[in-house]
Every structure is written in structure tokens, then in C-alpha cells.
Amino acid sequence: VDVARLSEHDVRPCRGCFACWVDGGGLCPQGDDMAGLLARYLEADALVLATPVYFYSFSALLKAFVERLFPVLSPLIDLPEERPLERNTPRFPGRGPARAVLIAAAAHRSRPLFDGLAATFDAICHGLSIERAGMLLRPESFVLDFEEGKPVACGKVRAAFAAAGRELVAEGRVSPGTEAGAALPLTRDLDMFRGHA
User: Fold this and answer.
1) Beta strand 73-78 with 87-90: parallel, antiparallel or unpaired?
2) What's residue 137's pLDDT?
3) How many distinct helices (H) and strands (E) make up the chain?
4) Cα–Cα distance between 161 and 167 in angstroms, integer?
5) pLDDT digits (tens, 9 = 90+) for 3-57
6) Residue 184 per-residue DSSP state
7) In this structure, are residues 174 and 130 in contact, taking their beta carbons and an 8 Å threshold?
8) What is the 3-state secondary structure (H, E, C) of 156-167?
9) Runs of H (alpha helix) within 58-175
10) What is the pLDDT of residue 77?
11) What radius of gyration, in Å, describes the C-alpha atoms of the chain?
12) Which run of H or of E encompasses 180?
């Protein structure tokens, strides 16, 4: 497992200059840490994106990283018949992750909090021509840190996250049951949630 903590890297926002396509041969001219991260990306079998939910979406760090994956795509546009969303063809066929998993943690309780993020993740997978292999969406995440009054479900949630890693390695995807286990409610009702909050 190769872990890249984006907060420890200099990943500047994409400038939209298209230099990586026009004359860069898949290389960005910015000269930050993204060149090394792209090399690591192209060696990966699977990609796990982990983010807190910041105002209903990815963190800015993760969004900048995803936008800077632009050089792994070629300028050629693929129009797949099975989905009415065009995408660019991979620049380096056979290299890079074949599948991706999203892990997202939010403080709020309601599942719709993740809707925009989940739709964006689906579109990213489609755009990169990689399979969406699972989404572990964790509402009420701060409750996991409570030492006293910890809900019984905390152990089940932690076990689901461990199972997700094993499933991704062994089967190439996270099962729907494990996704559901990772998202189990930690508070029994809104009053209990308010008390923890």
C-alpha cells in the first residue's frame, strides 16, 4: 500500500493551460509534487480516495489532485454507447488503477449529505475509465471518537472498514453489505445525535 497524504505535498491547482496535452506529452509544466504523484498513480492497481466532506464535496486538496490527473488522459474523445457521457481516452493504456474506492467522512447525520460527492466520484471514475469498486460513506464520523457513551455500532463500523480493505484486495470490490456496515447509524435518533454534537 502506497499512501500519499496530500497535505504533505505541493499540489497546485490545474491552470487549464492544456500544456500537458499540446506539447507536454502528458507532463504538467508546473514543477510541483504532482509529477511524482502521477508516476505513483500510474503504478497503482487500485485507487482509494479518502476525504472529509467539506461543504458537501471533496476537500480542496483532493479536488486539486483529481484535477491534476488530466495528463493521464489523451486529447482524443471516446463516445461510449452505453453511457451518454463522453470521456477522453487513457493516454497510457494498461497503466494506472483499474478500480477506485471512495472513503468520505462527515459530521452530519443525514445520508443526502453525500449525494453530490457520490455523483462526482462516479463521474471521475467514468472520466478516468476506471471501475467504481465501492464507496464507504461515514456520517456522524465524530461520534467514533467518543470514549464515553460510545454507540454499540462503532465496533461494527470499524469491522466494516477492515472488511472493505480485505474485499478490495481479494475480490477487487467492496460488497454492498460492507458499504452498508460502514454507514451504520451511530446514534439512535436525532436527540442522541444532538447530545453528541
Assistant:
1) antiparallel
2) 97
3) 7, 5
4) 10
5) 999 999 999 999 999 888 887 677 888 999 999 999 999 999 999 999 999 999 9
6) -
7) no
8) HHHHHHHHHHHH
9) 60-67, 115-127, 153-171
10) 82
11) 18
12) helix 176-182
How large is the average pLDDT for residues 80-101? 86
Site of grid cell 449529505 = 113
Q: Order of strands, edge to edge, in the sheet holding 131-138?
A: 46-52, 99-105, 131-138
7-16 LR contacts (CB < 8 Å, sep 24+) = 7/61, 9/33, 9/34, 9/37, 11/37, 11/61, 11/64, 11/65, 11/68, 12/64, 12/68, 13/64, 13/67, 13/68, 14/64, 14/67, 14/68, 14/70
Residue 63 to residue 195: CA distance in whole angstroms: 33
Rounded CA separation 78/85 (Å): 9
Is the pTM of the predicted complex or chain greater than 0.85? yes
pLDDT tens readout for residues 129-185: 999 999 999 999 887 776 555 667 888 999 999 999 999 999 999 999 999 999 998
Cβ atoms of residues 113 and 106 within 8 Å: yes
